[in-house]
Amino acid sequence: MPSALSKEKLRNMYRTMVLIRRFEERAGQQYGLGKIAGFCHLYIGQEAVAAGSIEAVRPDDFMITAYRDHGHILARGGDPGMAMAELFGRGSGYSKGKGGSMHMFDIEHYFYGGWGIVGGEIPLGTGMAFASKYRGEDRVTLCFFGDAAANQGSFHESLNMASKWKLPVIYICENNRYGMGTDINRVSAVAEIYKRASAYAMRGEQVDGMDAVKVHDMVKDCADHVRAGKGPILLEARTYRYRGHSMADPATYREKSEVESERKNDPIPRFRDYILKQKAFTDAELDAIDAEIKKLVDQAVKFADQSPEPALDELWHDTVVEEGEPDVRPRERVLGVKVDWPTFPISFKVTWEIEPKDKSEKRAG
Amino acid sequence: MAEIMYREALNQALAEEMERDVRVFLMGEEVGKYQGAFKVSQGLLERFGSARVVDAPISELGFAGLGVGAAMVGLRPVIEMMTFNFAILAMDQIFNNAAKVRHMSGGQLRCPIVFRGPEGAGGRLAAQHSQVFDSIYSNFPGLKVVAPATPKDAKGLLKSAIRDDNPVIFFEGERLYAVKGEVPEGELVIPIGKAEVKREGKDVSIITWSRMYYFCQQAAEELEKQGIQAEILDLRSLRPLDEEALIATLRKTNRAVVVEEGWPHSGLGAQVVDTIQSKAFDYLDAPVARVTGLDVNMAYAANLEAATQPDVTRIIAAVKKVLYLEEK
Considering the domain boundaries, does residue B95 fall inside one? Predict the structure, then answer.
């Protein structure tokens, strides 16, 4: 099926993918220079998944992910300088330098983090979708996680509830084939994650996660299904990370030939070829995007490097919400720009019935 | 003033808050059709419908996390744990997510959620169903923890917990649900973080919370007959601790006994004693004594179970010890 992607969407996706790649390369470099510490999980190789998915949904759809989150915050429109500053542990980072690589949050863009325990965010995404249904919104939640998270109990518990209650959520498993150093096939009875949907009477789909167009079209189709109230979907995106699990991992558990062969499948040249074949943009136009991104990422590194560390009294903020204390809006705080902030109604009517009254009484009888 | 049961007080608080704020919903095992394992949610399904009183599968981690996610985007969930023994399965969601989301997001998000349910010995339930968790939850920054003893406190504190913008752990007592007490009619909100002197006395302070309060009352009555006037300070909130109230009672009596149902090692009482020694050292006329559950797992046998828990005799003995009175 030919994709109906507009020029604008093609451009956005290409730009996002290149931005993530260049950002991550610089993050790896800055890690090597000692500017970034701790765990730092790069998204290099998986760019098509975030870029394709986000372009397929509304800007106000919810999104949540695990700790390999740099790509997701950028894809959603987060400020590269503030994301890099967070990696540097600086006060101008999205979480004031309190979160670091694993805990990126950009609520202005409906991106809800940034979670460090494998599978721990799956119930959260489920709850966000519950809230949408509770309020009668037509919002979809994209809940991302890795292949290894599908072996956590949180995956099972969440998918069961989501299907039973028809929650508007797409569970997007980014299957990069390794849970840290362990091949998913070595520890999974059913390593094709999407097949597990059948255990929850849920629609399951698989997509080539190295193909941005296919990801986009699949997520679009899934979002339409979910938004129409037809229940959640488990979508497995087959992808690959070119770097180790984190910057601390030399990835010696993989054959060099495997990585080399996967590199032939690099989602960015592949997408570029597609765009050129479609004659949507010329080589020169794409080169211009590349140049713009290079500059943007240079600026991001510079911004991070020049930002001061958080003030020490920040230790005593953000543990407990004091009465009347507002939420922090990062771009307002750091860049002084006025932003639209997500708000949710405090007064509404709940029309949803999980178990319609007559039906549950009949069953009781 | 009406005399009602602890479970009825909780039920009133839930119903009033759900009436007041449509964002509040109750989720847990058996909360709906079964009307609550301990009947706390009696009648609520009928009144508020199945999307606001949600019967969850037995997936404590799953529905605890679902609540946290819903709280992050504007709802105010009350998650019922049938008992806190089962909430062990949900600790990842409570400690790693609920307690840390404000911090990790740099203040972008808040998590107004209540995790409530009973803890402590329920009566011949053996090792896995009789545990006390005061200390472990109170250890975590980002959480508030309350443990009301009386129906009045239960109602007032639950309403506060639901209105609070932070995750609140709300400990009920498995043996408290049928306890009766006077609860004022109308709006009743008791602030989190405030202890209450439940009995005035000048000779010794007995500091306690939750079910042990009733043992302490009995001990105080017994001591009164012997000419000893014990003051009882009911902490009600375990985090934050009411340090001012601790200092005030020590200033008055100069002697303290801390009574808790849980284990002694790293128990919450140890934190109370530390607060006393660091903030009220000059008022002390004797080392502070602790009465706790024994440092063993709970047995099923009736005599072993009884011997494991604090009782009136042990509380009286501890009071006499800090008064340097020989036990006859």
Answer: yes
Kindly indicate whether the ipTM for this predicted assembly is greater than 0.95, answering yes or no: yes
Q: What is the mean predicted confidence (pLDDT) over A123-130?
A: 98
| Same domain, yes or no: B137 and B208 | no
Residue A12, both tokens? 């956005």
CATH of the domain at B208: 3.40.50.920
Domain hosting B79: range is 2-183
What stretch of H or E contains A62? Answer: strand A62-65
> What residues contact A81, with CB distance under 8 A and at least 6 apart?
A92, A299, A300, A303, A304
Question: In angstroms, how far is CA B60 from the centroid of its own chain?
Answer: 20
| A-B contacts (CB, under 8 Å) | 187
Q: Most distant CA pair in chain A: distance in Å?
A: 72
| pLDDT single digits (tens) A170-194 | 999 999 999 999 999 999 999 999 9
| Whether residue B26 is found in the same domain as residue B151 | yes
Catalytic residue among B29, B60, B174, B260: B60
Using an 8 Å CB-CB cutoff, list chain B residues near A114.
Answer: 104-105
Residues B288, B246 share a domain: yes
CB–CB contact A112 B109 (8 Å): yes
Q: How many CB atoms sit inside 10 A of residue B127's CB?
A: 12
Count of the separate structural domains present in chain B? 2
Same domain, B67 and B16: yes
**Does the beta-carbon distance from A350 to B101 stay under 8 Å?**
no
Give pLDDT tens digits for B259-309.
999 999 999 999 999 999 999 999 999 999 999 999 999 999 999 999 999
Looking at the fold, whether B216 and B167 belong to one and the same domain comes out as no
Residues B219 and B315 reside in one and the same domain: yes
**Who among A113, A125, A354 is closest to B104 (CB)?**
A113
For B176-203, the three-class secondary structure string (H helix, E strand, C coil) is CCCCEEEECCCCCCCCCCCCEEEECCCC
Q: Test A353 with B144 for CB contact under 8 angstroms.
A: no
The reply to whether B10 falls in a domain is: yes
176-215 in chain A: CB under 8 A from chain B: none
Q: What CATH number is given to the structural domain containing B100? A: 3.40.50.970
